[in-house]
Design goal:
The structure holds 2 protein chains of 2 kinds. By secondary structure, chain A is mostly beta strands. Chain A contains no helices and 12 strands. In chain A, a hairpin with a 5-residue loop joins strand 9 and strand 10. The chains are: A mainly beta, B mainly beta.
């Protein structure tokens, strides 16, 4: 019996000078994708960026909601070269691992723009959610997750899952 | 009685001889609905088997509601209209807040209304825990939102369905007379 929730690939950072992790050649045979990232940006002033199919134009935007135990806040980033996940204050360390889970629903359809939705948390510090948009009707075949303006914390990992049906 | 495996020639009293045990997958696809031309007022998942522990619906949504950016889709469980209690957190891109509701069908998802830029759909991950239990009320949690480079929202919602009945059907619908737009798509999964 074919699995429904399939791990497609895992990539990890084994040094302190890696700026991005990427999944390419993504099969279109699933309905939804989930990407789980453990780790974060070495620079605590920046978050992560999500880019599809090597599109570096200003076709991305995001709405965020965060809470830090004292206050809640919401922000939007428009016309960006990537979906910004986390933003200021979401940088990680070797001891505290950011947890990011992004759903990319109906990623292979060629009719709608692609909306991502996800959680991005720093245990003990911040809880966050994001709704992101890539203004393209192209099927997603490549996903790049980038440490904005810096590098990933050594040991960061990203795993991509495909969900059938 | 010993059985000989035709696969590797070994003898055993187990019918699994020579084969690995069947391990049922933990995440199972039940049904997918993609809305066709003209849209639809309701989407129903019926005769849901009780063989899983939790249910999850993953999808994208848009409605044809004119003059609306952030629209809402409800879901009725077992056709019940009233026994729901909902609380949530939201972010609009400029402010954060909380909301609550009761007496209506529970929140399924925000949906991009007709005033949202073309081709933009909301995304939803909707979960119903221990849905086949007959001795507890049911808990629902939802992560849902959209962005269109100008407006949008992101929400976390938790709901209670105050019923001990096992869940056998889910009906997704608008809050009024709006239709769920073409290309909206929802997949129902059972989780063990």
């Amino acid at each position: 019996m074919a699995l429904t929730y399939v791990p497609l690939a895992t990539t990890s950072v084994s040094n302190g000078t890696t700026n991005y992790m990427e999944f390419s050649g993504i099969s279109s045979s699933y309905t939804n994708l989930i990407m789980v990232v453990q780790g974060g940006n070495q620079n605590a002033s920046y978050g992560l960026g999500l880019r599809f199919n090597s599109d570096s134009n200003s076709n991305y935007s995001v709405t965020q909601l965060t809470g830090n135990g004292t206050t809640s806040a919401s922000a939007r980033e428009t016309s960006q070269p990537q979906i910004i996940i986390g933003g200021n204050g979401f940088g990680g360390s070797n001891l505290v691992t950011d947890i990011t889970r992004i759903y990319i629903n109906n990623y292979s359809n060629t009719t709608t723009y692609k909306t991502t939705i996800g959680r991005n948390d720093i245990p003990g510090s911040v809880v966050g959610t994001t709704a992101g948009l890539w203004r393209s009707t192209a099927a997603i075949a490549t996903i790049r997750i980038t440490a904005q303006s810096s590098y990933f914390v050594n040991g960061s990992t990203a795993t991509l899952y495909g969900i059938a049906g | 009685m010993a059985i000989r495996s035709l696969k590797n020639g070994t003898f055993s009293r187990s019918l699994l001889i020579g084969n690995t045990a069947y391990d049922p997958p933990d995440f199972n696809h039940i049904s997918t609905v993609t809305v066709g031309s003209g849209g639809t007022s309701t989407i129903t998942f019926s005769s849901i088997p009780s063989t899983y522990t939790d249910l999850q619906i993953i999808g994208i949504a848009r409605t044809d509601r004119a003059g609306t950016t952030t629209d809402t889709l409800f879901v009725k469980i077992n056709s019940d209209n009233t026994n729901y209690y909902t609380h949530g957190l939201y972010g609009t891109g400029s402010s954060a807040g909380a909301y609550a509701d009761s007496g209506n069908p529970t929140y399924f998802s925000v949906a991009a209304g007709a005033s949202v830029a073309s081709n933009v759909f909301s995304s939803t991950v909707w979960e119903l825990l221990d849905y086949s239990s007959t001795n507890k009320y049911k808990t629902i949690r939802v992560l849902h939102g959209y962005d269109d480079n100008s407006v949008g929202t992101i929400r976390l919602t938790s709901s209670l369905w105050a019923s001990t009945s096992a869940v056998t059907s889910l009906t997704i619908q608008g809050t009024s007379s709006q239709n769920i737009a073409q290309y909206s798509a929802f997949s129902l999964y059972g989780i063990n």
